[in-house]
Amino acid sequence: MLFSPQRFFDELPPDGPLGAPVLYFLICSAITAVINMVASLTFLAVPVGFALATGSLDAGQLVSVLTIFVLASLVVLPVLFVAGFFVSMLILHAFIRLIAGRYQKGLPATLRVSCYAVGAPVAVAWIPLAGILAVFYSFYLHTTGLKRVHRISTARSLGPILILATLLLVLAAVVAVYDYSVIREAIK
User: How far apart are CA 1 and CA 9, in angstroms?
Assistant: First the structure.
């Protein structure tokens, strides 16, 4: 899939079972969650060690904070990511139906393509430079997969992806502005 996406998506039946693609996406997401947690704990090791050595943090507080951090890293954030992925696939398919009309092959085909197109790039997203490149490669995989599976043009497959990406960026900007205002009010 990663090295020959055109051939992979040509051979992907649009009405095949959903189990394997969804499992692939979930495994890639779980790997990323574990790697992100371990990397974060690695970066926190020095400040936590310093806080313990200076006595500004006791072991009980540390265990509580680490428990919350691990729970959030391995359960809450991955569940939110997976739920957001599936909701965004519904929105993506709505745009595909709007743009491609009767030529599209249905929601299961879009979900199968999206699981494969997002799964592998998500697994390397934790690597700083590779993560940025993975986003662009995911756009390519998505466009190629939707084009091949739905048998639509490149423009008709790229359009819904770019619309969804724009909506997600606007949502992220709104959340960032809101978070900034909440933090600013809390500091006052």
Answer: 8
Contact 33, 78 (CB under 8 A): yes
> Could you tell me if 29 and 78 are in contact, meaning their C-beta atoms sit under 8 angstroms apart?
yes
pLDDT tens track for 143-187: 999 999 988 889 989 999 999 999 999 999 999 999 889 888 888
- The encoded tokens of residue 100 equal 């491609």
**Sign of the Cα pseudo-torsion (88, 91, 96, 102, in order):** positive
Amino acid, single-letter form, for residue 82? V
pTM here is: 0.82
Instruction: Determine the Cα–Cα distance for residues 62 and 82; give it in Å rounded to an integer.
Output: 29
- Give CA–CA dist 129/111, Å, rounded: 27
Distances in Å between the Cα of 2 and the Cα atoms of 8, 43, 77, 141 are 9, 30, 26, 8
Number of other residues whose CB lies within 10 A of the CB of residue 150: 22
Query: Coil, helix or strand for 20?
Result: helix
Reported as a single tens digit per residue, the pLDDT across 54-97 is: 877 777 777 887 888 888 888 898 999 999 999 999 999 999 99
